[in-house]
Structure formats: C-alpha cells, structure tokens
C-alpha cells in the first residue's frame, strides 16, 4: 500500500484548459503584454485546430479572472490584471496541505457570505441574468452526471460581480480556483452533494433577486457549511493518519 503513495493522479486537460495554459505561457514569458490584442477568434480556431466554442469558453473564463478584457469594436486584449488569479488557476493544487485547504475554505466563507449580502443589496437586472445563466450551465452539466466544478466557479464569481465590490471579487479570484479544483481531487462533490448544492444555489439566487440581504447571507452560509464540515473532517483524518504512521 505504501507504494501507492508514490503515484499521483493523472489530470486530463480539456481543450479550454490547454488554451488557457498557452495564453498563460505567452503572458509570463513576456510575448503577450498588457494592452496587447489577441488574434480574432477565427484565427485562433485555425491555429488551435478546434471549434470556436472552446476558444470562446477560454476567453470568457480568463475575462472572469481579470486576465483578458474584451473591448467593443476593438477585440480582446490582455488586461494586465489578475496574474495571481491566473497562477492560482493552473497551479499544482495537489501540493496544498490539508490545513491550507481548510484555511482556504474558511476564508471563502467570509468572502462569499459578504458577497451574497452585497449582491442582494446592489444587483442589477443584468447581474441577475448573468447569475441565472451560470446556474443554468451548472444544472445542465449536473443533469448530465458530470461534476460541474467550473460552472460552480462561474456561479459564485457572478455573485461576486453583482456585489459591486472589486476588491472582494479580486480576493475570491485568488483563492476560489484552487478550492474548487481541490473539491474535484478530493471528491467533495460526491455522495449527493451536487443535488443539495443545486437547491442551495437556487435559494441563494432567489434571495438575491428579492434583495433580502439577511436571507441571502444565510443561504450562502448554509451552502458553504457542508464543504466547511468536509474540510474539518479531512483535517481530522489526515491528523489520525499521521499519528498511525508514527
């Protein structure tokens, strides 16, 4: 059994992941600089040899992270912001220690409950449409029996966007990608948790629509209590495992 500890999980990258990694490499190497314009989607599709939907998804995700910015009639440019978020997105999250995972989750609870409260207070009709769109994408993937980790991220970032607090959103961008990737690696979405998560997502959206600050905050807290309990249990298991090895 000890031999198994020498193996690591194989992560299969999607076309969207590969595009993000290539853009990241171009930025970190200095070949793409803040203000530089990306080639048109059609040209990128030809170079990557994939469909336009993958290119659009990658660009949309990087826009959420603040890496790229699409300007009307000007195309997509490098924003020069959010590099920490980009590094978090593609970092080796498997190296995070359990205690770090728990700290990230605790920080997320603080940020997201406040994001829900501010979203209920400040949201616009456009914000509601964006949150609804993200939730629909999450539900579609869940109904197909696929872990909707990326769609979950988009749902929560849409709420952060609706909060109208750019600092809060930036902090979430730094920690949330690593947290959600850990969910996938640790199977935190198993045991029917995705069904419960969908119900709580819908409740959060309802109270944000109703602009009920108190109930939106509590709904977000209820939603995150499950993963907070999971991180606490994981920490105890890791502690007991270390004791047995001694």
UniProtKB/TrEMBL annotation:
Cited InterPro entries: GntR_C, TF_FadR/GntR_C, Tscrpt_reg_HTH_GntR, WH-like_DNA-bd_sf, WH_DNA-bd_sf
Keywords per UniProt: DNA-binding, Transcription, Transcription regulation
Record carries keyword Transcription regulation: yes
Signal peptide boundaries: none
Segments passing through the bilayer: none
Pfam families (alphabetical): FCD, GntR
CDD domains linked: WHTH_GntR
Superkingdom as given in the UniProt entry: Bacteria
Domain (HTH gntR-type): residue spans on this chain: 13-81
PANTHER family per record: TRANSCRIPTIONAL REGULATOR, GNTR FAMILY (PTHR43537), UXU OPERON TRANSCRIPTIONAL REGULATOR (PTHR43537:SF5)
Protein name, per record: FadR family transcriptional regulator
Organism in which the protein naturally occurs: Reichenbachiella agarivorans
Lineage: Bacteria, Pseudomonadati, Bacteroidota, Cytophagia, Cytophagales
């Amino acid at each position: 059994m000890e031999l198994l500890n020498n193996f690591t999980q194989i992560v299969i990258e999607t076309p969207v992941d590969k595009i993000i990694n290539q853009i990241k490499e171009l930025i970190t190497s200095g070949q793409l600089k803040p203000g530089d314009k990306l080639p048109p989607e059609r040209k990128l599709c030809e170079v990557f040899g994939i469909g336009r939907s993958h290119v659009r998804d990658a660009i949309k995700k990087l826009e959420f992270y603040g890496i790229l910015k699409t300007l009307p009639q000007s195309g997509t440019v490098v924003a020069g912001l959010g590099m920490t978020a980009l590094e978090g997105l593609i970092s080796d999250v498997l190296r995070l220690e359990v205690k770090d995972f728990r700290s990230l989750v605790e920080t997320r609870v603080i940020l997201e409950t406040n994001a829900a409260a501010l979203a209920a207070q400040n949201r616009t009709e456009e914000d509601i449409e964006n949150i609804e769109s993200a939730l629909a994408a999450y539900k579609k993937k869940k109904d197909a029996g696929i872990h909707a980790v990326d769609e979950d991220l988009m749902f929560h970032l849409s709420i952060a966007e609706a909060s109208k607090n750019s600092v809060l959103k930036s902090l979430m961008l730094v920690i949330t990608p690593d947290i959600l990737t850990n969910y996938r690696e640790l199977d935190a979405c198993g045991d029917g948790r995705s069904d419960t998560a969908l119900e709580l997502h819908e409740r959060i959206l309802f109270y944000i629509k109703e602009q009920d600050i108190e109930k939106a905050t509590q709904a977000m807290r209820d939603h995150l209590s499950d993963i907070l309990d999971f991180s606490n249990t994981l920490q105890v298991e890791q502690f007991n495992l270390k004791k047995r090895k001694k």
